[in-house]
Amino acid sequence: MIAVVRSDRARGHVPGAEIWLGTRTPGTEVPERIDVIEAALADWPVIEAAPHDDAVLLAVHDHALVEHVRTIWARWGDYGIDRVVPYLFPTAGMLGDLPLREPLAPHAAAGRYCYDTMTLVGPGTWEAARGAVDVALTCVDEVGDGVIYGLTRPPGHHVTRTAYGGSCYLNNAAIAAEGLRRAGHARVAIVDIDAHHGNGTQDVFYARGDVLYASVHVDPGAGWFPHYAGFADETGIGQGVGANLNIAMAPGTGDMRWLDAIMGIVERVMDFGATAMVISLGVDAAADDPESPLEITQSGYFRAGELLGALQLPTIALQEGGYHLPTLGSLVRATLEGLGR
Predict the structure, then answer these.
(1) Preceding peptide of 106 cis, ω within 30°
(2) Cys-Cys with 120: which of 72, 83, 108, 300 at CB 3.0–4.6 Å?
(3) Residue 299 domain-assigned (yes or no)
(4) Mean pLDDT throughout 80-85?
(5) For the residues 292-317, what does the mean pLDDT come to?
(6) Which residues have a Cβ under 8 Å from the Cβ of 176 and sit 6 or more positions away?
(7) 158 is a catalytic site residue
(8) Contact 31, 10 (CB under 8 A)
(9) Is residue 79 pLDDT above 90, yes or no?
């Protein structure tokens, strides 16, 4: 039976809302996600996350980003706003050839490190995000030759080396992959089955040849987040050429073509010669999910787990998306049961 690594700190992050098209809307990445997943896996063995230092975290993310996420809530001024939300973004279009400077005002710094208005920071955000890092690294410690599941919240695959967004604050999957490399695995595969492309994970490893990033996701060219990344012609640069695979799916794809894409990823992982695997386990492609355009069924997720489990690699599955609370737990369990067969 697959062990579940968890942390009480996960519930501390309460987004409060999302700012979507300039409008305050209810948040979907809520603490109750933890409750329904833990209830669905209540009969599985549990491991409490152990504390880890920042060495692997800082190998994945720039120190300035980590310090911003750690301190921005304490520095946030009395603006009459109950969460940190950016209003100004120092894009290349704004700065041109000018240097990117560190702003003095916290309300300006918010847009220096966060690339959207959806990903709000509150009083418990840092503790939860840092707890998720400890979950990921505890999975590295405990995986051995088997399969282990990390109940990471908040999710992480949208966080780049230098910026956060997409309801993510630190990149748990990238940190786990780097941890596996440092533990002696020569080549690590990250397989991302979340409904949305993990632009952050791709960014972290895009120029590296020792970590394969392979993602199946809804087509960003059809109008889906992250819009600017996740296309088939993004195959890596420098030493990373060929170590990035994006398979973009049309909205409404369904199980058959989605599972065909998973099979293609399995073949790529085999060709890559991976000695360990990290799965970004988002289940928001499910038919009932409010973020879902792909209409994947529970049996589809079970089969995806089986296909990936057939690789028989040391495997860490980390939670990413999945927002329909009535079905979230059963979808996660089905995927893990397939993975552990």
Answers:
(1) no
(2) 83
(3) yes
(4) 92
(5) 97
(6) 136, 137, 139, 140, 150, 278, 316, 318
(7) yes
(8) yes
(9) no
